[in-house]
Design goal:
The structure is a homodimer. The first copy, chain A, contains seven helices and eight strands; from the N terminus they run αααββαβαβββαββα. The first copy, chain A, is of the alpha+beta class. Chain A has a three-stranded antiparallel sheet with strand order 3-4-5, with no helix packed on it. The two termini of chain A are about 30 Å apart. The structure holds a DNA duplex.
Chain lengths: ~230, ~230
Amino acid sequence: MHRVVLDRQSAIPLYYQIQQTLLEQIRSGAIKVGQPVPSEQELSQRMGVSRMTARQALKSLCHLGVAYSQRGKGTFVSRAKLEKDFRQVLSFSEEMRVRGSQPRSRVLAFKRITPSSGVADALHLSPKEQAFFLKRIRFADSVPLCIECTHIPVHEVAEAAVASAEEAKLLRIRKKAPVFHFTRTAFLADGKPIEFVSSTYRGDRCKVVSRLTRSGKSAAGKVPHA
Amino acid sequence: MHRVVLDRQSAIPLYYQIQQTLLEQIRSGAIKVGQPVPSEQELSQRMGVSRMTARQALKSLCHLGVAYSQRGKGTFVSRAKLEKDFRQVLSFSEEMRVRGSQPRSRVLAFKRITPSSGVADALHLSPKEQAFFLKRIRFADSVPLCIECTHIPVHEVAEAAVASAEEAKLLRIRKKAPVFHFTRTAFLADGKPIEFVSSTYRGDRCKVVSRLTRSGKSAAGKVPHA
DNA sequence: AAGTGGTCTAGACCACTCG
DNA sequence: GAGTGGTCTAGACCACTTG
């Protein structure tokens, strides 16, 4: 952050470049939960942009839920941010599908385990490999509807690609913009496949996911509400 | 909107006064779903504010989920409210999982097809067997986030069982009440399994699912909003 | 008093959509 | 080409918080 890191020739907006810089500092732990991020004035001076642009960067952090602002005090790294990271770690296919909504659920357990042989088989894991274990109650209008136990391998990947013409139009992004492709098949207990889903996600809305899919470690051991 | 309605002496921000005016017009039906709200330029002229202030009013509408903006086209009233009405028609295994939330999505296609060989393989279907094909756009805050294509075999079954003591307590139902068990594994495109989920659903809240899984016909050919 | 975020202005250039 | 939203500037005044 000491040096100007902005590329003014780039098509990437300045506020977005600043946002990414700050996100990286937060992820890396350089700015911790509860601590202030640089103020609007400080950012505008350091980065050589107008205060409105610095402000837009900070507001975008707030909209992501990563930070919150307090009049007269500053802008601080949100505690909820970690929870959202989790949601995105856990999100993948499932949690991503409901983004923008507020699925109500309570986490009963969230830990890193060495899965049972049955689960390991299902996930094609060797006996030693670890997985996240997540046990949740899901609510519908405050009525508990479902108990869900999820296992996710610690190493997990999403497939990156570029948007086709049709995808670009539907998602209102430019053609050849980055997207993620997910494909999956859902099975019943008896092994019978019941659902085949292919999904295309906007790359610009899922960057955290792609990062987390590569490391995915920061989440272990916490028990947030999803 | 013809007259200046803003109170510049008020402590209420101008952008907020404009937002409230627009919200009232949307609620009253003066501006209907899918129709454009006044553009930034038009608002700034009519209301006698700078374009940035008009813009802030429109963005606040978007953040509320009431409207969405399209570059080069305009800002339009979101159909979020309408989408809720049709949600439950399509509650297969997936949709049920997000009950209690308000997943916004639009159905582009929903029909009964004879799937391609690739999909048939994934679902273990014989070449002649049919599947439902469901194509949707999913929204997050009125931003299209994902295109999703789902194939579901016409004959689909959920595994019925009775609730264990723990399940009964968590779901607040009586012991031995009917429940459904789902188990599934999610895969990436390369066939790598990334998620293993076992779920227990309340039987009394999932009748739609059980109905659809048995006949699966009532929904065929319809093109509702989910 | 100094620093912060909240609001606001009056311009500007751009990429995009559409007729 | 006209209209739209997206970004950006270089200022400004305000209310608020803290030392």
